[in-house]
């Protein structure tokens, strides 16, 4: 499976190649590129890759309906770039016919995965016109009447990943429906909310006509519905969008009564409403018809979590990209990182999720929303559910969580060495294929748009993941069903995810295995050795018993000696 990789490895091999072999290398350069089923070659061309980490490298670029692939033709440089076209967000012409300077004429490509790529061509006869037009056309297929590659892919897997999440199965796992919560199909045709799933869990006391009236008072019709319920104390996490209060301070008795039904479901003394926004933003939203829950919501308390909106996050991420690609200035690293405010945003999201998890763990139901209940809401609910429910920390459970809280409802957490069944590779794979357009999993904005085409005509990312689960498993994983995780949301404990954000820089040394991790691996190997010896002893004992004649000896049987190991 192709993934966006960039490898640079200068190799002193020039003395091994004659001029003849160099020409042969050029001709066969792209012959060994393995295409995916359904992938088609569009164009290949001699080009120069202006490598930001070293020098300009001559080679050949191949454009397919899925990827941009570059390979060096220089004998002393081993380099390859493999970039899914879906990861490209901008293609621009660099320089003009009158440009002067080496490698000043060509293309500049901005990617969604923290990279900028520059390619140079010869300034003769509009040499870049064909590759620019074809790359632009296939990198943005919908704008040019072309199908997304996910619909062209013919990859086959042993498991159908579209079956990983079944809403009713997940509700039953949580113990729903029960005497306080019911399942409704009021949104079966996406009539109440076109960005919500068809199956929803709501209080038993609520009637469908109540839900319709509440939907009229919530942004985009995104009513408060159950995301997760605590099996012991029956406290719930409910999610929704902002109420449509507006500048005039409109009220809706149905909405107020409905939130009180959520509170009453487990006799919570006060329903906590977590508004992800800064309070000043929530007030400002009144000018556009939005707002927040005021004092009229009795038996409820409102808490603002001060998480900035998507526009502020994008600007912060742009600043982060500027300091990690292509070069990392280590002498001013900490101050540069601080100036991006990226870790501050991560800290606020993590801190908010901890508050949600702690409140629910102590028996109090909560409602979580931001403006429209998309990004910040899903971040908070999914992180809180990861902390509260160990099922979501398993490989398949995590897939369900993403399908449930992000994909179904219309859309990082710190690692804990033994708490998660999956490893970092899974997170990298998900992020890479978020943009690759190889799978249908992340296409479109909501379930109603996705249901019409995607499941029957594309492959799910989980088909890939579950076809080779062993590479995504964490060997340190220790199942603990009742354990709630409470990470420390402190700037002193937060670190930048180097493996993702700075992975393209070949000069950044990979972190060496920690002494704790190394010792853990040694213990795992020792455990396996003892288990093997135990198995051999049991087989030997069984063999001896089978060969011993049956006697009526009055000698009492000797007790087995337990085998004790350091583990």
Care to describe what's here?
There is one protein chain. With 567 residues, the chain is of the alpha+beta class. It is built from 18 helices and 15 strands. The strands form 3 sheets. The chain has an 8-stranded antiparallel beta sheet, with helices on one face. It has a 5-stranded mixed beta sheet with strand order 11-12-15-13-14. Strands 9-10 form a two-stranded antiparallel sheet. A hairpin with a 4-residue loop joins strand 4 and strand 5. Helix 8 runs antiparallel to helix 9 and helix 10 crosses helix 11. The protein is globular. The two termini are 39 Å apart. The N terminus and C terminus are likely disordered. Its EC number is 3.1.3.95. InterPro entries: GRAM, Myotubularin, Myotubularin-like_Pase_dom, PH-like_dom_sf, Prot-tyrosine_phosphatase-like, Tyr_Pase_AS, Tyr_Pase_cat, Tyr_Pase_dom.
Write the SSE topology.
Blueprint: E1 5-10, H1 19-27, E2 41-50, E3 56-64, E4 67-72, E5 77-84, E6 88-94, E7 106-111, E8 116-120, H2 129-139, H3 149-152, H4 167-173, E9 181-184, E10 200-203, H5 208-215, E11 225-229, E12 236-239, H6 253-264, E13 271-275, H7 279-284, E14 300-304, H8 310-324, H9 333-340, H10 342-361, E15 366-369, H11 375-388, H12 395-408, H13 424-436, H14 447-451, H15 454-457, H16 461-467, H17 498-501, H18 515-547
Parallel strand pairs: 12-15, 13-14, 13-15
Antiparallel strand pairs: 1-5, 2-3, 2-8, 3-4, 4-5, 6-7, 7-8, 9-10, 11-12
Helix pairs in contact: 8-9, 10-11, 11-12
Keywords: Cell membrane, Cell projection, Cytoplasm, Endosome, Hydrolase, Lipid metabolism, Membrane, Protein phosphatase
EC number: 3.1.3.95
Biased composition (Low complexity): 538-555
